[in-house]
């Protein structure tokens, strides 16, 4: 089969929000390379919606390692498939439905030998994750067209966000989004919640028109932290805790500034040309996970770069350091 004869292409990415969005440069590059191809992307049931309506994707849907086992029993409907991750059931599904499949080497010769391209996962600790995920299309000489992450908001999404602002009388406020918590199981990445409260208080004292939108999920530990932050800012904050992904993204697009730790919603925010300040743990370096091509991206990295571990506390980043950056950005708005 000639490369230009790929007319139906499948891409599978079952992962967290951040990793899902970090594949969008690869997806866009594949779509650009095969301009006439129909691109289908399958993602995690709770996260695939961040990929909906992308102009270079024709169809999106959900799949999981459990549901994949029962799918694809009716022949090969795709010409080419790319599979991210190491769930064998997802790779086997792609092998059932696609004439050719490209994936990272699975460590199982019975599967790897069936792949059109079995790609070694890059081991460089300094390689940006966008470039790591580009390794699959690069295996067949597809170059990156852009390294900027992508998300597309519909008219319905934008109207939803506008209504949120109207309902909460926020249209005349300087809106600052706050993502104070990342993965509950990796809390060492989080800046102390008390520091966020102190920072926000300083911002209010400097500019009483500032209003905070508090983002967050429904995990009990996460919710407890961010609910405390919301309560400490009573009258100056609106809680968006538990709001679905697309709706949260839509509201994010209406803000003036974002401050957060490096986590999934931060990657969502990086798809908009809105100033953002990101606090990075030394195990989650900006050079590896930071936004590429964003016009107003400010990274504050943990000072302990040489002897970094999970014991390196984010409290080493002072409120003063962050406030100086925040103050400079707000003055430029």
Automatic annotation (TrEMBL):
Organism of provenance: marine metagenome
Name this polypeptide is given: Uncharacterized protein
Entry keyword Glycosyltransferase: yes
Family matches, as PANTHER family: TETRAACYLDISACCHARIDE 4'-KINASE-RELATED
A GO cellular component entry from the record: cytosol
Gene Ontology biological process terms from the UniProt entry: lipopolysaccharide core region biosynthetic process
InterPro entries found in the cross-reference section: Glyco_trans_9, LPS_LOS_Heptosyltrfase
Keywords on record: Glycosyltransferase, Transferase
Any one Gene Ontology molecular-function term assigned to this protein's record: ADP-heptose-lipopolysaccharide heptosyltransferase activity
């Amino acid at each position: 089969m000639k490369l230009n004869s790929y007319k139906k292409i499948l891409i599978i990415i079952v992962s967290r929000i951040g990793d899902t969005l970090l594949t969008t440069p690869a997806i866009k590059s594949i779509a650009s390379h095969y301009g006439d191809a129909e691109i289908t992307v399958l993602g995690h049931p709770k996260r695939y919606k961040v990929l909906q309506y992308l102009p270079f994707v024709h169809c999106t849907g959900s799949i999981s390692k459990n549901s994949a086992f029962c799918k694809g029993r009716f022949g090969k409907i795709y010409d080419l498939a790319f599979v991210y991750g190491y769930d064998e059931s997802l790779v086997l599904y792609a092998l059932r439905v696609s004439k050719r499949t490209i994936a990272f080497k699975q460590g199982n010769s019975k599967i790897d030998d069936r792949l059109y391209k079995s790609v070694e996962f890059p081991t460089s600790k300094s390689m940006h994750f966008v470039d790591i995920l580009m390794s699959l299309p690069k295996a067949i000489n597809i170059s990156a067209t852009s390294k900027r992450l992508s998300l597309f908001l519909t008219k319905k999404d934008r109207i939803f966000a506008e209504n949120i602002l109207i309902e909460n009388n926020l249209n005349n406020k300087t809106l600052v989004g706050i993502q104070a918590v990342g993965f509950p199981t990796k809390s060492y990445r989080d800046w102390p919640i008390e520091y966020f409260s102190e920072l926000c208080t300083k911002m209010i004292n400097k500019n009483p028109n500032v209003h905070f939108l508090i983002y967050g999920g429904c995990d009990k530990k996460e919710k407890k932290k961010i609910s405390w932050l919301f309560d400490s800012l009573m009258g100056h904050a609106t809680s968006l805790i538990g709001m679905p992904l697309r709706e949260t993204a839509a509201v994010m697009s209406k803000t003036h500034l974002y401050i957060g730790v490096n986590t999934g919603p931060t990657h969502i925010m990086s798809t908009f040309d809105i100033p953002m300040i990101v606090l990075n743990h030394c195990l989650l370096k900006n050079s590896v996970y930071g936004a590429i091509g964003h016009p107003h991206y400010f990274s504050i990295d943990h000072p302990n770069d040489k002897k970094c571990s999970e014991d390196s506390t984010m409290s080493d980043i002072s409120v003063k350091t962050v406030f100086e950056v925040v103050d400079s950005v707000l003055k430029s708005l």
